[in-house]
Amino acid sequence: MTILVGMWPESEKTQELLAGAENGDAEAVNRLLERHRDAVRRMIDLRMDRKIARRVDASDIVQDVLIEANRRLADYLKNPAMPFHLWLRHMAKDRLIDAHRRHRGAAKRSLDREQPLVAPGRLDQSTLNLVAELRDQGRTPASEAAWNELQLQFVAAVDDLDEQDREVVLMRHFEKLSNSEVAEALNLSSAAASMRYLRAVRRLKSILAGDEQSPE
Predict the structure, then answer these.
(1) What residues contact 184, with CB distance under 8 A and at least 6 apart?
(2) Are residues 143 and 83 located together in one domain of the fold?
């Protein structure tokens, strides 16, 4: 079983590199952007419509994001209104929406994904605990096969959520963002972000229980 930590690089090193960038260190800028490349790629892979993925290379979107970040970095350093990783993921989200609009006419999720959001065995322990609680009143499956089945069920359930609920689950359980980071990224209060997450969890529970209509 793979245990994932936060998807985004730790902030202490990021702050060190941002300080170097502010002092004109070009190498610090390069290292700053490169250390976020994989996280940006994973963030995009989680959300890219699978039909679009046949025609658009996610690596090209990542490269566009990093080029834009490099171009706008001086402005960010003058007014870092949000943490660097949230600023970067905001640009990545905009680029992905643009790609969806260009290739499908609207930034809507395809109803026929060709693969799940994340491969079995890639959920962290806290998410697996949530899955077990939602699916079976907290009872932990004894076998690895049972764990794998729970993971598949969870991923399929997340895919069935509406866009807002799916987004908050992706942010909390795949990107490993805190509630305060989710609130900042979505321009919500902490209380509103928490309520949105609780609503998404209720809907996940409904889907995993086999209910056809999710509760409001």
Answers:
(1) 82, 83, 86
(2) no
**CA nearest to 164, candidates 130, 131, 199:** 199
Among residues 69, 104, 139, the one where a domain terminates is 104
9 neighbors 32 (Cβ within 8 angstroms): no
- The domain containing residue 130 runs over which residues? 125-208
Query: Is 169 in contact with 204 (CB distance < 8 Å)?
Result: yes
Using one digit for the tens of pLDDT, what is the confidence trace for 53-78? 777 888 999 999 999 999 999 999 99
Torsion sign (Cα): 191, 197, 203, 205: negative
Residue 119 lies in a domain: no
pLDDT tens for each residue of 173-187:
888 899 999 999 999
